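User: Hi! I'm working on a homework problem where we have to compare a predicted structure to a textbook description. Could you give me the structure for the chain below?
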Amino acid sequence: MKIGFFDHVEMAGKPLPTTFSERIRFVQEADKAGVYCYHVAEHHATPLNSVPVPGVWLGAIAQATKQIKMGPLVYLLPLYSPLRLAEEIAILDNLSGGRFEIGVGRGVSPFELNYHKVDHEKSRDIFFEAYECLMTALTGGDKFSFSGERYQYKDVPTPLRCVQSPTPPVWYASSNTTGSLWAGEHGMNFTTNGPTKRALENLNAFREGFAKRGGKAMKPKAEFKEGLAIGVLRQIVVADTEAEARRIAEPANKHHHANITWLMRLHQDSGLVTRLNVPLAGTYEDARRDGTLIAGTPDIVREEIEKLKHETGINYLISYPFFGQMDFSDAMRSLTLFTREVMPKIRDL
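Assistant: Happy to help. Predicted structure tokens:
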């Protein structure tokens, strides 16, 4: 099982230059330790995310690292010009020396889409067409054409090409069975989140779609037996004692929960949670109980990851190790314990 890292780069009361420099140092250490991929979210107009333009951020990460793969999880396709995004992807794949991974999605937050004048009710159809157009642009050779309801291009030159031919690997993240099934039908790398029971429903939907496709990955990854990554996201905090892990994780989880519900409270509307039908753990105890947060000593964390692997059959774990208002020194100590005492013992799962 391979290990990736996920990040929102949350706002937590620090000056943004400090947040950015600390996070780059953190990812550099993960790179040295052999973490497989760094995934960053895209959110807008919320303290949950201080890098709402993930391509700019990943350009900096590409230049600061040597071997770790990287990509957005996900680009919100309804907010982009497919042509402009295809050009950005080509730049980032070249900046990283062929380490870029394309994450695509329609956007989970109706508030954020509405700020960009995108109707959330229409966003799935917009996403499907934007995705088709983007892939046409990336795979069309020296020029491409596309004719759809929303996007039309005719013989557009595309001199910028990706290092990875014809495109970098594509990822989809979903917290519902509809999106999970679609991702499987398209042979994408896949990850889900939420309580373990809910995550398993999405994983099963993905596997159903992947089986319909004949079990063939869109762009096979030889490092995964199935040819692609099938993962679950978990907040993970490792410390020398259980008490120390809780000291770090509890306030960080509380701050993260406040950030992830910030727009709902601003609009006095809980529709986001209702639409997804995914409960957001509000306390440390809730998060530990539903499996979305793993915290403890290296042995405890390892045992819980082994249990997660057994229950879900995943081949990829996306750890969310630096979240909320976590102190940099605490995050670095957790990273050290995780990469030195946990990762080597779970890689062969």
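For your comparison, note the following. Residues 146 and 285 are 51 Å apart (CA to CA). The longest strand covers residues 230-238. Good luck with the assignment!
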